[in-house]
Amino acid sequence: MNDKRNIIIIGMPGCGKSTLGKALASRLNRPFYDADDVIVWQEGKSIPELFAISEDCFRDAEVRASRFLASKEGIVVACGGGVIKRPENISIFKKTGTVFFLDRSPEDIVSDVDVSVRPLLKDGRQKVYDLYEERIGLYREAADYCIRNDKPMESVLDEFETLIGNIL
Prior knowledge:
This is Shikimate kinase. The protein is an alpha/beta fold.
């Protein structure tokens, strides 16, 4: 396995990127980074504060965080759901990493995610379906591999680990 290649996880808000990313990093004995946490650390502002300025302000911060994360080796990164809105982010990540789309159905997301605490989902459950429809093509296009998050967590982690073992 190429331990230097980064594992980049993209997908919808609430699809399990952070939860699965932390567990996967632990299994593989790699450092874990949540891109949103890196943005807050780098910018000195919360995600809602950045969005309050403008979505562009947040997306610019996301590009800076993508560059910082891509400069590291052997890490697991959970990206924000909208990272694919700027193709440059994916280009940055692909230089040092392999991109995995964690695909979870909108039905599963709305059934167990508190949409009120997600900046882009505060408009309610329908927003999840609308975002999925808007972004599904971008996620698939950006991903090197797709993993469905439609099984128990251990099964999804096993699938990730097997796939990573075969490709890295």
